[in-house]
């Protein structure tokens, strides 16, 4: 019998609920949360831009991401992803553009200190291109990367 009474109370409570009002309040809350997130993102990007300009680092702003030095800086909520080419270098949670710039500079320093040499890479690419042309590829001055890759490996080992 207790369950019957509890069910009747639950039905009465549901009948007295204003779902349209609740839906309206939730929709307003969603709009406000999206506006707030958009403002925070814009503020973070502006702080990053001012830090980059002070440091005179190359910077380009796009609609949904930024380029800072060699990095593509993508934003999703509070997460920021740093990519170089197709490789993700780091994913950080940072709301402050100035601190984000410090993080970007730290990652740039790590890349600069790594054993990888840009000059050496370009020499490998030039050698690989020469080898590919010598084998009859790239008659129009272009060699698809899939065809060039084995020659890059060969150039690295020579």
Shape: elongated
**Radius of gyration from the CA trace?**
28 Å
Q: How many helix segments?
A: 5
- Biggest sheet strand order reads 1-2-3-4-5
Number of strand elements: 5
**Beta content:** 15-25%
> How far from one another are the termini?
87 Å
Overall residue-averaged pLDDT value = 88
The stretches of 5 or more residues where confidence is low (pLDDT under 50) are: none
Structural domain count: 2
Biggest sheet features: 5 strands, antiparallel
What is the chain-wise order of helices and strands?
Answer: HHEEEEEHHH
In helices, the fraction of residues equals: 55-70%
Structural class: alpha+beta
Q: What oligomeric arrangement do these chains adopt?
A: single chain
Question: Layout of SSEs?
Answer:
Elements: H1 2-16, H2 19-55, E1 59-61, E2 65-68, E3 71-76, E4 79-84, E5 87-93, H3 97-113, H4 118-134, H5 145-157
Antiparallel strand pairs: 1-2, 2-3, 3-4, 4-5
Helix pairs in contact: 2-3, 4-5
Description:
With 158 residues, this protein is of the alpha+beta class. It folds into 2 domains: 2-113, no CATH class; 118-157, no CATH class. It has 5 helices and 5 strands, in the order ααβββββααα. It has helices at 2-16, 19-55, 97-113, 118-134, 145-157, and strands spanning 59-61, 65-68, 71-76, 79-84, 87-93. It has a 5-stranded antiparallel sheet with strand order 1-2-3-4-5, with helices on one face. Strand 2 and strand 3 (71-76) form a beta hairpin. Helix 2 (19-55) crosses helix 3 (97-113) and helix 4 (118-134) crosses helix 5 (145-157). It is elongated and about 90 Å long.
